[in-house]
Write a structure and sequence with these properties.
Number of strands: 2
Helix content: over 70%
Order of helices and strands: EEHHHHHHHH
Strand order of the largest sheet: 1-2
Length: 237
């Protein structure tokens, strides 16, 4: 019975290399070292990807897909209509979506830069869609910018609050839902002021009152059970 001198794992009699650490088991030290190095290099080639490598791979594949869609859309419009017209809408959306993915992949940990980039990209998207609609900028200024600013401020506040929470669980979901209900109020008031020159609460108030009890319930569950919660056991399911 043989054992590896490096890691101590049990080996078969005909094994030339340790299957665990790659150390050679032969007599010739020079030949064994070369084979050991080769075996280790062979093993390292199949190591799992790191998180950074996975993000990079996802971004590269997404960029290739978006570029293909961008070019295909442009060529179809150019060949069919002999000029660029409707394809400008999907091309602007594709470009903006690619910028969003780039921000999430590479700038998300830098919260200030991420928030600024998110705001500017959303502003670019809304402004371009408004301009392409009638070659004039109207609703993107009076509706798009207030809603974009409200969402950006809400996102910045959420980042700050969640970063200060030590025991994260259902309370994070409750905070996000509560912020979304507030954002609905901002959306309705921006639209109402643009069309009717007044502020009003109708569907956003219903959304807020519907979400608020559920948020309180989530806060209660989190304070009662913390992170280690098993609702099936608690409700005898």
């Amino acid at each position: 019975m043989l054992f590896c001198s490096n890691c101590g794992v049990e080996l078969d009699d005909n094994m030339q290399f340790c299957p665990l650490c790659g150390k050679a088991t032969g007599v010739n030290p020079n030949e064994n070292n070369d084979k050991s190095i080769t075996s280790k290099n062979f093993t390292e080639q199949y190591l799992p990807l790191t998180t950074k490598q996975k993000i990079r791979l996802f971004w590269e594949l997404s960029s290739l897909s978006f570029l293909s869609g961008f070019i295909v859309t442009f060529l179809i419009d150019l060949i069919h209509d002999k000029h660029v017209s409707w394809s400008l809408y999907p091309m602007i959306c594709i470009l903006s979506t690619w910028i969003y993915i780039t921000l999430f992949c590479f700038v998300f940990k830098k919260k200030i830069l991420f928030i600024i980039g998110f705001f500017l990209n959303t502003l670019f998207l809304l402004t371009m869609l408004d301009f392409l609609d009638n070659l004039n900028i109207s609703w993107s200024v009076f509706i798009g910018i207030p809603i974009n600013m409200a969402f950006t401020i809400m996102m910045a506040i959420l980042f700050y609050i969640i970063s200060k929470i030590k025991n994260k669980g259902l309370n994070v979901i409750a905070i996000i839902l509560f912020a979304i209900s507030i954002f609905c109020i901002a959306i309705e008031n921006s639209i109402s002021y643009y069309f009717y020159n007044t502020f009003s609460l109708s569907w956003s108030a219903l959304a807020f009152t519907s979400v608020l009890p559920f948020c309180i319930f989530l806060f209660f569950l989190h304070s009662r059970f913390g992170k280690n919660i098993d609702l099936r056991k608690y409700f005898h399911l």
